[in-house]
Amino acid sequence: MLVLEYARRSNAALAMEAFDRARDYGFRLSPLSCNPLLSLMVKEGRLESVEKVYRQMIRGRIEPNLMTFNTVINGLCRAGKLQRAADLFDDMKSWGLLPSVVTYNTLIHGHCKMGRTGKMYKAETVLKDMVSKQVHPNVITFNTLIDGHCKDGNFPSAMKLFSEMKQRGVPPNVVTYNSLLSGLCAEGKVDDALEMLEEMRGSAVEPNIVTYNSFINGYCKKGMLAEAKGMLDDALKLGLAPNVITYNTLIDGYCRSGKMEDACELHGSVFSKEFPPNISTYNSLILGFCQSGDMKRVSKVLNEMEENGLKADRVTYNELIGSLCMQGEPKKALKLLDEMLEIGLSPSHVTYNILMDGFCKEGNLRASLNLRSRMEKNGKRANVVTYNVFMKCLCKKGKMAEANKLLNEMLMKGLIPNRVTYEIIRDEMMERGFVPDADGHLFSTQL
Question: What is the superkingdom listed in this entry's lineage (predicted)?
Fold first, then answer.
């Protein structure tokens, strides 16, 4: 009873202590006590405790029920341990338990949100297994898959599922439409999104502020700021309450288009102590002022940010480092990298790549190579952008054979060239006598 009571009070430490004591003293617990404890541990992200409680249940012959499995599988999926979750899913059969729609939805959600290569294929495989076992997908099932495909940039697959859910008699809700609208707007297909908005209203599904946020984002990406502001006005007329994402999206649109006065005016008019800006708000303003070269305003924004109790994050530092590199000051930018490490911020690939590019543009290849070594010592292997930076630098120095060697190294490591890579190959390497062989590798025609 103590385990259950502490779990209900969300006291994880005392709940675990009571669980351990009960086991030590030989008291037999039931799923009625263990399941709330498991739920609490999942909620608090304590995966080790989740697995420990589950193992002790099995050893203590406390027979797990469907809720037990659903909870543990949810914890494993949240932690990205999808194979372990799949193994536990298979274990259910040995206990004579059949997975429910919740079980399947949890696995699908895990693949869509936490999966890596082939994640949507695996999520679709779970859906097929679900249907074959006569477990009927619900709106959560379809919404999760549709959102996953939209975020993966696979809109045709999302629309296929949208049609399937309607065929199965599962009515789309506002979450369904918002995922599709977000996907369309992210690709710049705002006109198509407007048509879907009409379909949404025709289906008696009312748009919410998330809907309008997608349109504001879509218009901002296309540089159509008047239309984006119009969408904000429409949302206000409908009585919808804009959130920080709404205003941040529009402020970011203004900043990226160089309309800093509009950005500052909006920032000053909507944010207050009751409705404070967040770090993303300030990062957009910093980016805008960095792009315009107004470092005094950058300092002012940084000071205001600190006064409001917000600390610079990795994005802030990346923007400041990028600005210094654009001004031809990579050595000053390098000091910011050291500062990041001092305050416990882990630099990303973006951080290192910006700095390496800054030194390369200065012609300081040695400093760039030192940074690459430093990056790899910190557990970050060179990615496609890293190789592009060095290949371009070597080409500019006329070191074509070395650039080609790097290209081949990149391909051997299984990295896929991007648009910039192909531009370097076309504009720099092929122009200077390098041609591709049957395998796509370049070789020099000059002896």
Answer: Eukaryota
